[in-house]
Amino acid sequence: MTTRHLNVETIPAEARGFHGQPAGLVTRVAANLIDLAVLVVSLIAAYLGVAGVTFLRQGARFTFPIVSYPVAYTAGFLTLVVYFTVSWTTNGRTYGDRVLGLRVRTAAGGELGAPRAAVRALLCALFPLLLVWVAFSRRQRSVQDLVVGTSVIYDWGGARRTPTSPDAAGVAVEVAPAVADEPDHGDAEPLPRLDGQG
Amino acid sequence: MHEPTPIPIHELPAAAEEAATAQAAPDDAAVSSIEQAIQVLIGLVTLGATATTSILRGGEQPAPASDNAALVTGAAAGFVIEGLRAAGAMLAAFEHTLVAPAASAAAVAADRPEIRELLEHWQRSWDAQRERSDPAASDALRQGVRRAADAVMDQLDVTELVLEHVDIQRIAERVDIDALVDRLDMDRLAARIDVDALAERVDIGAVLDRVDLAAIAADVIEQLDLPQLIREATTDTTSEGVRSVRLRGVDADRAVRRAVDRLLARRPDGDAHDDGHA
Fold first, then answer.
1. Between B213 and A183, where is the model more confident?
2. Nearest partner of B222 among A197, A168, A161, A169, judged by Cα
């Protein structure tokens, strides 16, 4: 059986010029600000959740719980580290990265493993200002990037894939003449046949 | 170009026949010439009789000799033929007895000088006259034949004749179509074809009816794995606003980069050649 690979471009046309190139300071700062907003909203939501549970338990005696600064910072720090680690490990991007069309890769262009993502998350949460080094680095890498061997690239594509592979900017689609013999790929549901057979 | 293919009209053993006549001729040339003349005359009489009979019958198919006219014609022809045969026998006898001695006598006479001189003089004057008269005579003959042929052709519908009597199919089988096609200028031919008019006459609907469009579409969709494609293309929130923000971000990145490059007096195209420890 001959199988042809058909590359279908899913990157928007205006982004193809810089797809896969290292991202600059402004977009990364903007992405981090969005992530910070996400963190704040998450913390407020968590606080309100705790308050709600307290209200249910205390009833009329309820007062809003008072959170000390160390507790708040610790909670925020831990939340941010977990958030970064999970985001970079699963999809290579946080919500801020996604809005700005960024993705975190290893220096070689591969996907981040959990340990590397965790170390990077710790460094980013502890020393966020080291991001400024992006402006001075020739390959637009922050200090955290240099330490853990990562880089941040422009990637407007939706799905997680390796940008340095030959079909970086497209989706590799299996095209087989005899489709009946082709094993099912992934979890895609087979389309109903239009001619009524099967 | 192909060599013209010879088309034998009759499968006659012409060469063998010629050899036979050449052998028979020297034996008794005079007798055979008289017999040939008689045979020709008999043939002419037979032909005339047949023609007369068919004219009398009005062009119908020759039936058994039931009508009197045909009977009379046939009888007349037979009488003439028998007469000719008898004349032939008499002539043959006359030739045996007279012609041979006369010929030998003429040969003897021709050997004598004065007679020979006279004969040669006559021969010369005949030759001279023939040189002048021959062209005129052949011209007159040619014109006469042409006029006669024209008159005949006027009476005949040659096309109808060919259609009736010629097996065109057999001729066509022997025609070298390739050679004909080689001589055609296909480009000029194609230029004369009105493709639009042709296309107007084509029933596209009928063609499409014969195509299983549904099966083709199903095949294409199955081969593309469309659901996966759509999933991958739409997971991202690439609305217009988001795209605009991203593009502005990229522009800002470049602006910052240019500014820093200028600040550090760095060549702006050093992206991929350094590891960042600049």
1. B213
2. A197
* Structure-block tokens of residue A73: 């910072």
Select from A10, A100, A185 the Cβ nearest to the Cβ of B232. A10
A102, A28 in Cβ contact below 8 A? yes
The complex's ipTM works out to: 0.72
Whether B246 sits inside 8 A of A23 (CB atoms) is no
CB of B241 within 8 A of CB of A106?
A: no
Q: For residues A131 and B192, is the Cβ–Cβ distance under 8 A?
A: no
Residue of chain B whose Cα is closest to the Cα of A93: B236
Q: Which residues of chain B lie closer than 8 angstroms to A22, CB-CB?
A: 271
CB spacing of A24 vs B252 below 8 angstroms: yes
pLDDT tens-digit map of B165-206: 888 888 888 888 888 888 888 888 888 888 888 888 888 888
Residue type, A75: A
Q: What is the 3-state secondary structure (H, E, C) of chain A?
A: CCCEEEEEECCCHHHCCCCCCECCHHHHHHHHHHHHHHHHHHHHHHHHHHHHHHHHHHHHHCCCCCCCHHHHHHHHHHHHHHHHHHHHHHCCCCHHHHHHCEEEEECCCCCCCHHHHHHHHHHHHHCHHHHHHHHCCCCCCCHHHHHHCEEEEECCCCCCCCCCCCCCCEEEEEECCCHHHCCCCCCCCCCCCCCCCC
Query: Of B249, B243, B255, B259, which is closest to residue A30 (Cα–Cα)?
Result: B249
pTM over 0.90, yes/no? no
